[in-house]
Fold each of these.
Amino acid sequence: MRHYDFLVIGSGVAGLSFALRAAEHGRVAVVTKKESAESNTNYAQGGIAAVTSEHDSTERHVADTLDAGAGLCDEEVVRIVVEEGPERVRELIEMGAAFTRQNGEGSPLHLGREGGHSADRIVHAADATGREVERALLSKTRANDSIDLLEYHFAVDLITEHHLGQHVSRVRPDVHCHTTNPPVATGDGVAMAYRAKARVSNMEFVQFHPTALYHPEGDSFLISEAVRGEGGKLFNQGGERFMFDYDERAELAPRDIVARAIDDQLKKRGEDHVWLDISHEPPAEVEEHFPTIREKLDGLGIDMTSDPIPVVPAAHYQCGGVQTDRVGRTSIDGLFACGEVACTGLHGANRLASNSLLEALVFARRALDPAVAYAERHDVPDGIPEWDASGTARPDERVLISHNRSELKRVMSNYVGIVRSDLRLERAQRRTRLLYEETEDFYRRSTVSSGLCELRNMIAVAYLIVKSARMRRESRGLHYTLDHPEPREAERRPTLA
Ligand SMILES: Cc1cc2nc3c(=O)[nH]c(=O)nc-3n(C[C@H](O)[C@H](O)[C@H](O)COP(=O)(O)OP(=O)(O)OC[C@H]3O[C@@H](n4cnc5c(N)ncnc54)[C@H](O)[C@@H]3O)c2cc1C
């Protein structure tokens, strides 16, 4: 049994930013289920949205975020994040993060533009921003003697007073076939918090990225929105440029519109991908702007300077999550949530591109003072039970885990995708219920393994998405249903599980 003042689960931007600050106040353990860099953060391409130019303003970033959020953002939170963001970005730079400059070292930051932003405001490191942020944070973390970084450690569940036979004290009263997320993203944080009875909010708002690479060896690889920003055009397999049929902004329409348009084309035409073509742009510019994407595609035999790229929409980001207040406190005393696991009120019904790294940075800072105060007031209680594996055995049929996992992915892709309906959601609920019962039974009888824990967590997250989607009887932001195709004022509130 090890004792720390702060336990951080996860070594992405949220976990590491918090750990580095907390280390000034006590001993910190960062547990992470694979090697440290493996996280969504490491794959972020576009960048961090922050107002750093005199041609931009806080008001414009606030307005863009509220506009994307389709009436469900918490305006006060939006303001906090937008106002505090630039300072957090400056701290990252001081920490050694090397972002792209306009004219080499010492010159002003080069600011990119992404869908839904009314100004150039995306701070980035070429097309691999997350990798640079993760590198800078990890090197500081590794050099810090107050932090133990425990790799290949899997958090199974949160132990609350419930496990000690007491009342839980409260502060106040990828699951889809195509995904851009790395395999570590299985919703463990949301599932654990839900099992511990924390409040979970807005889970129906799953953002699909319109353009993930469609290739047997390329799953989970994102073709950045910036490719469309730089002139990339979408074609169906009949060679038609279809986006104008859906929106006058064509390829530069917001993500949800482009994703729905591609989904519609695939369903109507019975095809499995569309083409994204940027081969008409000068090769030197394509190479300069997209070195990472180009390298990846080259490895698969696709030359993006001359060939179109096969793409499909893919599950990308969860706007909902564990509900927090303005300083990252969840409804369970002593449990803070920050980053993609959290639902702070920033994104509402749809996330504005590049606002998520920003949210993680801002909330990691905001959670510090209350977390330090909490750690000072509380000792680790006696009687925390050791892991008890009695009555379990090594499962002889591990294949059941992989079967249930692929079945779950199919159910979610077929019935809880970009376009939903009452009937599809009902079906999904029945099937996830069955998978839940089978898996819980298997879990009770089996020696614990990461594969089984992940499956259990994915089922819990799927259940929450379906349940929240059924609760919302309108279409808003990322939630689009054929049975209730319009937004309704009476439904303009967060869902809560
Ligand atoms: C391809 C891609 C591109 C993106 N591009 C952008 C972008 O340009 N701009 C932007 O703002 N956002 C972008 N995003 C979203 C953004 O990267 C994420 O929302 C953000 O990085 C989340 O950070 P995090 O620290 O909350 O979680 P993560 O970075 O996912 O870190 C989670 C950590 O928790 C660990 N973990 C999970 N479960 C367990 C467990 N049970 N036990 C122990 N450890 C566990 C994981 O191993 C990992 O270390 C992108 C996402 C993807 C996938």
Amino acid sequence: MKPWWDIFNITSWLEDSLRPELESMAFVYSPQYNMNLLGHVFPAVKFSRIFELLSWDEHLSKFNVYYPEKVSTEDLQLVHTQEYLDDLLNLRNTKSTAYSEIPLNNEIVEAFLYAVGGTILATELTEKYEFVFNIGGGFHHSFPEHAEGFCYLNDVGVAAKKYLLKNPHHKILIVDLDVHQGNGNAVVFQDEPNVFTFSIHQENLYPIKQKSNLDIGLQDGCRDHEYLDKLRKALETIQKEFQPNLIYYVAGVDPYEYDLLGGLKLTKSGLGKRDLIVKNFAKHLRSKVVILTAGGYAQKTEDTVSLHLQTAQVFSRKEYGLL
Ligand SMILES: [Zn+2]
């Protein structure tokens, strides 16, 4: 957090003037994010790999990195039911936890507690930075009363509800570009007028769809041009009725053409342009952005890692704004 005396944001101005080619951005990460899922399709060791490559990168290594605490049970109750939290935190294999399709043990629950803490911290850091990238989170299939689709806890749900308690008149937009629909987020925010949920996803794919404020279901095999065109038009439409102070960008890289779970055909370059469209939209609206990694199941885990790093590059460097 900025020092108490810095009412004119002098520390941010100094940092920005020292690196004029870079955006106002920070990263959030915890070594606790990794999970050992032993051969599972979810490459849950990607988090430390992304961080490792980021630390070696000439540009990305210049940004501040912040380390979260675990989320408190009190904060989790902003979204999740006490009954579900009792099952999860006591590692009980019940119907409500089994939908996760991943194992239930102490290490994995800890990873989720840190991931939610990370999205809360990233949200708080938007007071100081334009873009904050949590190298984790985006667990958009988690419901208030049950786990689903590799997601035990809904990090965006908890962080957004906490933010709204502090900023009750602010508006939040969720831009969910993971290949799977953000069904958990749609349900968490269905009665929240200050949150607009928007999801572009493959229609003929998990999950059973819930109703977001705007859903765009794409046909199998959709390629760059159609995808980017629909994304641009959707954001234009949203902008006419909703001006967010804060955007959560659920930046899953599973629309990638070589993804094992998704059936869209976006290239690496197409995914970079997708990220740039979201960035430019946010800059145009002067909205802060919290970026989450969410899904990514490429045949080669290194591809998944490199696509997440590409998102970090696009948001971090001013030159991408000129493309
Ligand atoms: Zn996904």
